[in-house]
Amino acid sequence: MGNCCESAANFFGPQKNTNMRVSLPAVCFVWQIAMIVLFGVFIRYDEESDAHWIEYRRENNITSDIENDFYFRYPSFQDVHVMIFVGFGFLMTFLKRYSYGGVGFNFLIAAFGLQWALLMQGWFHALNPETGKITIGVESLINADFCCAGSLIAFGALLGKVSPVQTLVVALFGVTLFAVEEYIILDLLHCRDAGGSMVIHCFGGYYGLAISWVLYRPNLHLSKRHHGSIYHSDLFAMIGTLYLWMYWPSFNSAITDHGDGQHRTAINTYLALASSVLTTVALSSMHQKRGKLDMVHIQNATLAGGVAMGTAAEFMITPYGALIVGFCMGIISTFGYLYISPFLEKTLKLQDTCGVHNLHAVPGMLGGFIGAIVAAAASESVYGREGLINTFDFEGEFADRTPGTQGGFQAAGTCVSIAFGLVGGAIVGFILRFPIWGDPGDDNCFDDEVYWELPEDEETVPPVLEYNNHMIHKQQEISESNFSVEQS
Amino acid sequence: MGNCCESAANFFGPQKNTNMRVSLPAVCFVWQIAMIVLFGVFIRYDEESDAHWIEYRRENNITSDIENDFYFRYPSFQDVHVMIFVGFGFLMTFLKRYSYGGVGFNFLIAAFGLQWALLMQGWFHALNPETGKITIGVESLINADFCCAGSLIAFGALLGKVSPVQTLVVALFGVTLFAVEEYIILDLLHCRDAGGSMVIHCFGGYYGLAISWVLYRPNLHLSKRHHGSIYHSDLFAMIGTLYLWMYWPSFNSAITDHGDGQHRTAINTYLALASSVLTTVALSSMHQKRGKLDMVHIQNATLAGGVAMGTAAEFMITPYGALIVGFCMGIISTFGYLYISPFLEKTLKLQDTCGVHNLHAVPGMLGGFIGAIVAAAASESVYGREGLINTFDFEGEFADRTPGTQGGFQAAGTCVSIAFGLVGGAIVGFILRFPIWGDPGDDNCFDDEVYWELPEDEETVPPVLEYNNHMIHKQQEISESNFSVEQS
Amino acid sequence: MGNCCESAANFFGPQKNTNMRVSLPAVCFVWQIAMIVLFGVFIRYDEESDAHWIEYRRENNITSDIENDFYFRYPSFQDVHVMIFVGFGFLMTFLKRYSYGGVGFNFLIAAFGLQWALLMQGWFHALNPETGKITIGVESLINADFCCAGSLIAFGALLGKVSPVQTLVVALFGVTLFAVEEYIILDLLHCRDAGGSMVIHCFGGYYGLAISWVLYRPNLHLSKRHHGSIYHSDLFAMIGTLYLWMYWPSFNSAITDHGDGQHRTAINTYLALASSVLTTVALSSMHQKRGKLDMVHIQNATLAGGVAMGTAAEFMITPYGALIVGFCMGIISTFGYLYISPFLEKTLKLQDTCGVHNLHAVPGMLGGFIGAIVAAAASESVYGREGLINTFDFEGEFADRTPGTQGGFQAAGTCVSIAFGLVGGAIVGFILRFPIWGDPGDDNCFDDEVYWELPEDEETVPPVLEYNNHMIHKQQEISESNFSVEQS
After folding, report:
1. Which of A185, B414, B419, C317 has a beta carbon 3.0–4.6 Å from C321's, enabling a disulfide?
2. How distant, in Å, are the alpha carbons of B252, C111, C408 from that of C118?
3. Mutation test of the interface with chain C: which of B224, B263, B288, B483, choosing the one with the most C Cβ atoms within 10 A?
4. Domains in chain B: boundaries
5. CATH homologous superfamily of domain B22-453?
6. Domain A41-259+306-312+356-454 adopts which CATH fold?
7. What are the pLDDT digits (tens) for A248-295?
8. Which residue from B268, B259, B380 is spatially nearest to C43, judged by alpha carbons?
9. ipTM confidence score
């Protein structure tokens, strides 16, 4: 099989150099050593994870260890962690010969990105100006996972077309851009976006799409043989889908306010997700001439309700409001997979392997605007006086903000995230076009063979068929020669 | 392959119409719109998930946000959620060509059913007579998941033999019946059944069996080629098994009393499950002439201990009592798979794809009676005076109940659940016999081809063999013609 | 295929008797009945899971049910539970034809071992001298799971080469030895080892290696055809890897101190794991001539950071200290897979199927020594006066211990665990050499066929190729005879 690939490559020109032996280890080592140094200079435990907690607790009249933020957030953190590594990871195993790359590079990007995220987010949000140190706790870990999610979404658009070193470049810039846009949106504009419709999904989606657009491969059809799923690869991908779907209420509620904030966010997300399953199934079935369902839609569009509730889920959107959001998002996302993606590929030359446009970019953007509308509609009668202040954090310099103004800022925040995604992605895309990154040739995409040592006995069918066809051909030749011998 | 199926169908009469293009989208849309309207009229956040919580907390002297029920129950909720979607879903992927249907329709049923469950259970348990509203919180989400479990169990008996629209009908009636029998058992009879041996497993099992009995297919042997597992489909099913097994302590303890109630339930369930693994392995090995283990038993009967502890786990059954329950259930369930299921299929014409009779119906029923016995044996010396009142909720109009009486009511509750399952299932079965639901023909069962768009390059062996045989035959013909040419 | 194996066996002498029909059920039944009797005599609920809790709570001025240890530890317990059954289980599915054995026997060992662990650990740690009873709660369940982990690690070294009865013997002695060494290390030497670098990983690793060394099979190359992975078996193994990786922070923090203890442990483990991913990738890529990654390293060495932080994670190792540990462990573990394991197999005759030497034995041992160094370096200025006492439990008879002394005892504890592993393993190995256990022949290892009823239609490629080659040969013979007919 290796031979066959190489000969195909030779046919279309010299094969690209995909040797990672120097660049990948170099990047990993340099990066990890830099992290150690920077962590040594900057990162310390916060008061809740430091051994001085026992004294801190007494001084602050905290009655019990259970008041430690760990117990409020750790279960949600673990759910988010599963979404990042198993959810995103297995969702990207759907390609027949790129499952190692899907789950493995996802693992690499996230482990690489979360360290940089702790630093970047720390500098912007948790730097103690006196000591010059960043202090971290369980909420920082959740935020670091969130920050990686943006880059993993971008990776979804590039799946199968980039080298591992390129994925690390995507993560490096992705995390950096994320921290900046998050600072602008959450701190400067004082938006609320606990589940990250804007800062995670909208940004990550457009970031990935912009990169992919710059990296357009006109001859990608040469890799067509690997561009599809097989029965069991789609089943592996369902593991990813289901973990994303089930744990999304934890994703959106992981860093919302203690008490009713986390509680309400989980309920709203749960309902929106249920609703988007039904409209996804409906649209998927309507499209096929015999009403058959398409795994691509079930794997992806069912999640759109969770994406779109990332901003509004902590507001009093009401349970039926959550159902309506899920209803619309299931339709919009499935519609995107059916019509928009092929259209974008044809007209805009946009190759989006996982369809992040339909699952993250658009639902994230709409989620930002839904959040703006729900925020603008907030009132003291619905939230209670204290509830309103609490939910939107109308305190300090923002004490005189009205819900209407807040809505405007939320909408502005969404635009910021789109701008950061598109501009940042375009720049990163150009950086990735330098011919030094070891990306695969157009005829060699979506193939684990390039970056992974594969087991010798392969199980997939195509090589078997090839082998047998080969034997049968040989056999035919024998028969034919046989035939000719006879005739002579 | 499509051609071959069709020709087979033609041989046995006109193929059934399995086109879902109108009915499935119609049901999904109508249902989801109805849900939005009903949620709009009825469903609101409860005081712990409403933005007024901050005021409610102060008024009720709740000292900390950690007292919000969210923190008592959310981790268990997420475990239950995983059991419903990954546990049940992947357990049903064991068939070689129905894995999409197993995990996909399970997903659809649950997302469809949980919305209806919030309404049905709300009307019976959480309707505020003054406002006319149902208020929901994390406990409602757990109950909604539980309610779906009944219908998913029923789906296990029907796996591969029904259309997606039929599964939705099963869920619609299943959730409705569940809410009514639950109201009778928990509210009117005042039974305790936190883990649902009676209301979930016993009801769900008999409900599914009754439907399957009415839908008997005399010619199901025509689908024999798809009725079995392959190596990797059994491994996917083990994902489901293990998640059910591991999280069952959360299932049984999710809605038990705060404090010792949840704690004790988890311990008892953990022990019963461990014990049933050993007796399942023992019996499975004893049955085979070389002592080999059967994956069907490992996948299913190991879970019977958890099913049977659904009622008694919150009582003071003692740790060794839990082990005894698991011991017996592993034996009974494996015995069921070995002898009872084949017997029922032969004599009662009962086709039970997943063997829910042995995993849910019988262990659930026995669990109900075990609960009755343990309740009847309760005493103040074991529970403490307050503990007894607390555990059995002997308060209000039930203040003068004795453990003995309670035991009688528990037993009566089990009978109610069986009756609801059998009668309800029979009625739903007759409804599903109308020739309008698009179910597959007898020769077309257990086949994802019917309701799913499958990847073109299939990986399973039979088509490969077929293809090769085809080539070899062709080749043989050439040789033979060759031979005849010679001879002439 | 069965036939082919049998004929191969005949070729190398009489096939071993692998019939489990008597021994496996006998062991399971006897054991489970013994457990029921012993639990009946010894095991009771502790005060937090007993129905008297409501009175206990009042008497001890516990203000809320949320103070029940259940709410501090249950989420971590469930994560540990997943690691034991899905993590270890699926990690061992990587062999192409031993996935059932990997996940199935792992399930059996753990369910068998955890009951014995509750007793053994109870006798040593939780026996009430007045009542003669052991009381159990959620922390006991976590410890029982931990105790099984030691035996599961040992099973990793033996994977594919032992019978199910032998695995139970390994677990029986493994749990017993574990409880004794744990008592010596934690109680007598007063070491801290919450995440078990010493008591779990170091002990379990050397225990398994010693057994494997005694059971050396000189003709194991006869099973070479099954000794490897296929594409999808490696993907199943990644499920195990990722769950171990994600939940390791819960593993290490599950039984550390409430409050800052659990919080800090989770952060440190999270960081060490992230760091070891990067160095694993770097080394794996450096080794291959085209820089390709090896799934064996990604599946295993990425976890070494978690293993090595089992002791030190609860100390104030600092975030960058955690990164450094992970950095080194990724390198050491990958290096082990590349060079040490082949060397040990060649020189020491050590057959270590899963490479537990590189993932558990060495990182566990080093983790013990790292813990010793970090403990010795502890100071009041870093921990605070109370924090130091609290973290190292310098109370009662250990009130006058200094950090320096503690470091010495920690190092001694590591040596104890190695000694127990090696000596205990050697003894168990000799016991397992008696020819009564039904282990497979040298030509029959790594094959599920021996102990599992497999589906008839196998999906793997080799039989297909065999079948086709057979047909093609037949065909060739026809052609050849054809040819000869002609010529005559």
Report:
1. C317
2. 21, 11, 30
3. B263
4. 22-453
5. Ammonium transporter AmtB like domains (1.10.3430.10)
6. Ammonium transporter fold (1.10.3430)
7. 999 999 999 999 999 999 999 999 999 999 999 999 999 999 999 999
8. B268
9. 0.91
